[in-house]
Amino acid sequence: MEAIRYELIKKCAQTGARLGKVHTPHGSFDTPAFMPVGTQATVKGMSPDELKEIGAQIILSNTYHLYMRPGHELIREAGGLHKFMSWDRPILTDSGHSAGCPER
Fold first, then answer.
1. Is the pLDDT of residue 32 over 90?
2. Based on the number of CB atoms within 10 Å of its own CB, is 28 exposed (0-12), middle (13-18) or buried (19 or more)?
């Protein structure tokens, strides 16, 4: 798998704010970025095609919720998260669960 790479496009001398592009094996996305949240492998109320129409370049998903439901076995059987979500662009996942929080 190709490494993830950040490309700096411009940096503000006064604030240090940066404009860039992140390159991943599943495509590139601009930073800063609007990142719709697909907690359990779907952005509620929107299809992948609709997300592309509004310019979404990446989706945020939640590893803990995916593990709890539908489960990693089902995602693996579907061919991985990208195929399971029908999303051919980058996906960022976070753990979504704090060890200090009681189970819900």
1. yes
2. middle
Token pair, residue 43, equals: 């952005």
Alpha-carbon distance of 99 to 72, in angstroms, equals 20
For 52-69, what is each residue's pLDDT tens digit?
Answer: 999 999 999 999 999 999
Which pair of structure tokens corresponds to residue 2?
A: 């190709």
3-state SS of the chain?
A: CCCCEEEEEEECCCCCCEEEEEEECCEEEEECCCCCEECCCCCCCCCHHHHHHCCCCCEEEEHHHHHHCCCHHHHHHCCCHHHHHCCCCCEEEECCCCCCCCCC
CB 38 within 8 A of CB 59: yes
Q: Is residue 104 very low, low, confident or very high in pLDDT (cuts 50, 70, 90)?
A: very low
> By the 8 A CB rule, do 61 and 81 touch?
yes
Cα–Cα distance list, 18 to 6, 14, 29, 41 (Å):
11, 11, 14, 30
